User: Fold this.
Amino acid sequence: MPTNLYGSGDNFNLETSHVLPALIRKMHLTQCLENNDLDSIRKDINKRPIRGIDGTASNEDIVSVLNSFGIRYSKLAVGIMQSANSQNDVPTANRPLPTVLSLWGSGKPRREFLYVDDLADAVVFLMNNYNAKDIGEFINIGTGNDLTIKELAEMIKNIVGFKGSIDWDSSKPDGTPQKLLNIDRLHKLGWKAQIPLKGGIKKDYQWYKNRRI
Assistant:
């Protein structure tokens, strides 16, 4: 039984993805919005349309669908753009604009994450070192460590380079308070995960930027 998995080849569809890849993509798109880099947003949603909106859509439709997933300009940014438009100015094309990423819940639930390559390594290790028929026990595969969703979001924010703010919407549900596997049996057999969460997220983000499929 593996814990929550992530890594190269993950599902980055904002409507169906799990928390970690969803946060990576949301942070990336919010950073692009922050930098007024609509070209990068168009390339992104051309590969992975969001609710039928792709890179051929109008700026208004793109901003609207991003907003529906909590990716939006701050009130200050909206004021800056309205002022620029009223003066027939375009300063927003050359400087960052404040953005906000709204996320569900309080950020307090705790989750454990395992890089997919570690799972593959553990499976091979168990095939060579474990016989469930003889021992009669299931084996959990994980890291033995968890962190809050808020800590995960801050880690991804730093890796992506997003400098805007995160707004936690406590009116939305948190879900299960904690999901952490007991991996004592696996450790006793001599296996431990090798890829730290921060390093794994960096690899996952690079895959996402390079492939975007």
